[in-house]
Amino acid sequence: MSFVVAAPEFVSAAATDLANIGSAISQANAVAAFPTAGVIAAGTDEVSTAIASLFGTHAQAYQALSAQAASFHQQFVQLMNGGAAQYASAEASAQQNLLNAVNAPAETFLDRPLIGNGAAGTAASPNGGAGGLLYGNGGNGYSPTTYGANGGNGGAAGLIGNGGAGGAGATAVFGSGIAGGSGGTGGHGGWLYGTGGTGGAGGICNDVGFNGGNGGAGGNAGLFGNAGAGGNAGYAFHGDLANNVSGGNGGAGGHAGLFGDGGVGGAGGGSNTQPGTGGYGGIGGDGGRGGWLGGTGGTGGHGGDADHAAGVGGNGGNAGLLYGTAGNGGDAGETRGTGATAGSGGNAGLFGTGGAGGAEAYSLGGSGGSGGRGGLLWGAGGSGGDGTGYDSNGGAGGSAGLFGAGGAGADGGAGNGGIFPPTAGGNGGAGGHGGWLFGAGGSGGAGGAATGDGYNAGNGGAGGSAGLFGAGGVGGAGGSNTSGVGSNGGNGGAGGNAVIGPAGAGGTGGDANNLTANGGDGGNGGGGGRSWLIGDGGAGGAGGGGDTAVGNGGNGGAGGMLAGDGGEGGANATTTGLGNGGAGGSGGNAGLIGQGGAGGEASGANSTGGNGGTGGVLSGNGGSGGAITGGPTDSKAGNGGDAGLYGTGGAGGIANGPQGFGGHGGNGGKLIGNGGAGGDTGLDGTGGDGGNGGVIGNGGVGGSSTGGGTGGNGGDAQLVGDGGDGGTPGGRGGTAGKLLGQAGQPG
């Protein structure tokens, strides 16, 4: 028995080529037909006429033969095409027969084929059929038309293939007395390879007192492949408060297997009515987890919009355990009423970045979502979500793992003075912690501004702490209210601490200076962070300006216990009203070795400059005291800080105003060091006393006063050194060293 092998596609291509050749020959014959069949005689003689007739007869015979050849060629081409079709049909039939023979036992015993796609769902059987055990996609779920009916689930794939999509839930019309139908769940992707099916959308509800349909969950993926997205939820167009009517909840995104991305969460459904008093927004679906070994987490679904209360945003999915970026949190819904919390960002695995928190939308209250944690070994924390609504708090930044920077805290939302009632400003989110071994802390978010009488601005968020190596995060600035009466500015956030590295500076306090009325108190500056082992302390934040009182400057942070300077104290602000000035922040103390931080300056009546920080226990100068600026009355400058074992005492601050008090100079090092000079003062003021010298060292000079005041006393020497001169007028000179030295001159 002979065997013939044929490739139908090659036979069909050859027939096409022959047809093209025949077409070209027919065109050439048509062109040559007239000039050859109608030959004109060369002359009028009989010979020429006979020759022309002979050529014409031959041409006509050729044309007749060409027509017969063309007909034969056409029949031959038809036969070849017919043969190719028969070969293809026989081959397809053989394949189908083979497939039927393979699938028959599996369908008999397992009720499922080995190879082939699952059937789509129908009204009688809404769920999609399963794909072949070895290969094939799951069938899509049925989308019904009966009011409020649920969509069918998508069919699962076998070893290789994609899961079927879930069917959409049916709409519920007005008067049907039923909620919108839920969307079907997406089918599972192939166990080895395949994408999960998309969840079906929830049905819309147009009836009074009933909810929108929930979105279906996305299908999970196999070992390799991406998961399906969750279905969006249905809207409730006649939401009301009496029945707690809400839009449907979005479907959760599916999870990946070993490698692949998690599915995106579905959006929550909205809810409103024409009068604007509708119900609640639906919750956004959570994003799916990335693959166990590697993959990106899915983004959380957006919360539903509503007239009364917004829907919560879905959380972002976690990344793969080995590597991958975590999913971002979903935004909260918009509303004219109560705001909601946005979704938190997902966490990373071993390597990867944490997801960003979702934003809080147009609303009253609520908060942005927190950023997710960075990878346990390496990766930055996610940033917090902004509080973009009125009086909304910013989300906190996510922390890092072993290596990585902490996420930044988000800004708080501004207070409202428009279509909503006036509100306070939202607080800024705290910065995330840096990596435990290495990484900077995240910066704190700024507090939101406020408008309207009696409404305070938001506080700034604290900066995140650093790890073992790294800088602390900067504190967020406090918000301001410069238009309301009796309204205070927000406090600045504290700076983040460090272990080996510089600490973060405190945030600036917000202003509350209404130029046409008594605005209120300015916010206090945030304190600077401290460095625990080696590094400089953070500077204190400046206080905010105000009409009734200004904010105090923040204290500087302490320097590292082994080495590092103390941070400078923050200055207070100038009052624009009749109130008292605040205090400048104190300078931070040094540790074992380092300079004390300078005290913050102050201004305004009855204000106080910050004291300088203490120098290092072994070695370091004391910080200078904060000066009084702007010429206010009855204000006291800050004292200089003392030195440690070796070093010079800090100079006392100068009081630039009448009846003020200059700051006292700090004492010199206990073993070796000069005392700091006392601060000068203005008209009818009192100069500061000079600091005492160490065992070896000179006393500091007393501060002087201009016109009718009293000079400060000079500092005393101890064992070896000169006493400090007294300030003019009337300051006493310091005593000389008991072993060697000269006494100071009186002022």
Topology:
Layout: H1 8-37, H2 46-110, E1 498-500, E2 531-534, E3 602-603, E4 628-629, E5 681-683, E6 705-706
Parallel strand pairs: 1-2, 3-4, 5-6
Which key phrases capture this entry?
about 750 residues; little secondary structure
Describe the structure.
This protein is low in regular secondary structure. 13% of the residues lie in helices and 2% in strands. It has helices spanning 8-37, 46-110, and strands at residues 498-500, 531-534, 602-603, 628-629, 681-683, 705-706. The chain has a two-stranded parallel sheet. It has a two-stranded parallel sheet with strand order 3-4. It starts with 7 loop residues before the first helix and ends in a 41-residue tail after the last strand.
Helix content: 10-25%
Tell the overall outline.
elongated
Distance between the termini: 134 Å
Give Rg in angstroms: 43 Å
- Low-pLDDT ranges: none
Which series of helices and strands comes N to C?
Answer: HHEEEEEE
Mean pLDDT: 83
The number of strands is 6
Number of helices: 2
Widest sheet: strand ordering: 1-2
Largest beta-sheet characterization = 2 strands, parallel
Question: What percent strand?
Answer: under 5%
Summing up helix and strand content along with how strands pair, one would put the structural category as little secondary structure
